[in-house]
Amino acid sequence: MAEPAAPDAESREQLLGVLADFIAHTGAAPFLLPPVAPGAKAFPEPWAPTRAGVQLLLRRLLWHADMDRDVEIDDRRAGAPPTERKPATRVELIEVHGSKAVFALGFVGDDDVVGTLAHEVGTIHAATHRPEDPEPYRTAEPPVVHVDPDRDPERGSIATVYLGLGVLAANAAFQQYSRGGRFNGGYVPLEYDVLRAGAIPMSALAYLLAVQATVRDESAPPDGLEPPQRDEVAQWMKVLGEERAALLERLGIGPSDHLDREGKPLQRAAVTAFPDASLEDEARPARNAFRWQTNRGGVGLVAGTVLGIGFAFAMSRGMMPLTFVGGAATGHLIGRRVRVPRCSACANVVRSDATTCTHCGARLRGDIASLSERLEAEERLDAGVGKEDARLDQRDGSPAENTGSNGP
User: Helices 202-215 and 9-26, interaxial angle, to 10°?
Assistant: First the structure.
């Protein structure tokens, strides 16, 4: 049977090389276990698109990958990107400590979240098992391992197959969604969105899953694959069917590696829900911000210009240059007298006496005349100088004089 077009021979050799390196480092057992399939059987915990939900899902993925590490989430969510029609989940591994992994949470979408997170779990293994580095956690004082964006994510996507998370990762590597578009007068067109998670193409993961199924002597693709992924894995399995012995030798897998200590075929442990599983989110600490004193000068300029032009059309068009300039200047001056406090964190309008921004939840700790003063005001807060809320003088924006007490 003819080989599928992708991946090509050179790419396949590179994929097998990385996989063989993982097996040489930590053994073949994870690769020879049945792959984890999506669904409630493998993920019995409750789910919600929240920080706690992501943390719980990462915790379960680490359990499947036999990684004994806590999960720490750096919550950086700022809403969905306005330019994306179907925003993708954004979670990124930042660093790995001896006992925990730290992730940055940017956004939780309604896409394949578990598969997206599987790629990041694979990156943990890649970052802590680089071929040229000694084992980082065998030292007396384990270092903090930072992700190398030039190679760890790509090797991490390959590691998902080694860790048994390949089905999840392959499904997330190519996600296709359809929905009805806008009515164009005759019919409602069907629109498609394609999302891709991970650092290598879906075809590469399909090839690796076919290698895994062939090595495990399976006759069909693993359970849980989406139709496009399943088709590609099945095609590669037909090609690789006669190459099992060569693959075992290439990957360094021996005859006894398929068996546990009792001589039985390797099987995954039974999955039971974490007894302390909870979707209760920890309260996000409110960030500090300031009431940024702006005005309506821009609005006044536009309004004055429009009124000036309208007056010229009504009275005499020859007066337009005079009314145009005069209206704009007058409107601008009047607008500048209208004070509009805004939150320095999100630029939304707030009340003049507001202590919390209703839009972003920031604590408003004082007044500043311009955004350029924000850093100075934050430094005063950190240093505890002056009044408790680090309020600046509303008249000229300069810091209030430090009297040596917390009083006004």
Answer: 60
